[in-house]
Structure prediction request, 369 residues.
Amino acid sequence: MPGDASRHPAVVVMVLLLAAALVLAACGRPHVIEPEPPPPAVTPPDQGEEEPDPQEPRLPVAGPGETLHPLTGLPVKSELLERRPFLVSIDNHPRARPQYGLPQADLVYELPVEGGVTRFAALFWAGEADQIGPVRSSRPYFLDLALEWQAAFVHAGGSPQHYAQIDRLPIPDIDDIRGAAGGGVFWRGDDRRPPHNLYTSSQRVHEKIRDRGWTLKPALPDLWRFALPADLPQGEEAAGVAVRRPGGGSTAERFVYDEESGLYTRYVGDEPQVDGGSGEPLQVRNVIIQLAGTRVIRGDTEGRLEVDMVGSGQALVVSAGTMREARWRKVDRPSPTVFTEADGSPLTLVPGPTWILVVPPGTEVEPLQ
Prediction:
């Protein structure tokens, strides 16, 4: 046939060589994979910052010009913590109730005295009250607290053991019975009979501290931490606590917990103990029960006590509807009393007012159900 390739062998050879060359050329060229272009970026619509849940509990936060109070965990004006605190001995005899000024105190101690009754030592630092009292006499273990806080000490007299020590200690002494420093600080009320009617105010005390040149900017202590109730160390559930001291029928007391408010109301007997100024029950967030060695002073005809505020021992913490074990230690009289959890970690409380009950061995402490 005229078009048959067998008749043109040269053409066939050339076509085959050309095809082979094309194949070889294709095999020798690298195969490059080009990436696909990225899709255009899509900017999500601005949702704004997520609003916090107003119902979610939060720890207090200090605002401008404020500091979180180291004793309550609540914001206060910073300038109030730059002044010298003062400690007041306050009567707790049944005839001295209701007291004035305890809700405004930054920290309240309750200490045993002779006769099976107790007395309060109220620390005022940022807190202010127009009427504080009734002011009563001191015992030497009250001086341990005044030294601890570098506080001026406000009282009306004291035991012989108190006076044997006070003049040797660096404590600004505001005494209604002895010395000129008490002038103009106290007044007698007509609401009850002496000695249960002596009062003072935070304004008068701070004025006296300034007039006597006793001003001092104290260091802020770091005694305990603050947390929300859900974050407290685990404890025994309790609707409150009952405390009965040895021989102290009139001072049997209860702190009854209200879950809705998170507050403990103080009862003496079956009645809530109230503030004389507002008529409202005395309420706190935390109660620390500090067990301290206590004994009658040998040879004291009035049965006055020695209380071991220096040393170490057991404690209980009542807070947020629970009760748990703790420990305390105080190295010497000027040193702070340091409370810890039972395992030695820093003590944790909920923000708010705290009372410390110093109790002797043999005190009955019963969780309420």
Observations:
- The chain has a mean pLDDT of 88.
- The chain has one domain: 66-368.
- The chain has four helices and 25 strands.
- The first strand starts at residue 66 and ends at 68.
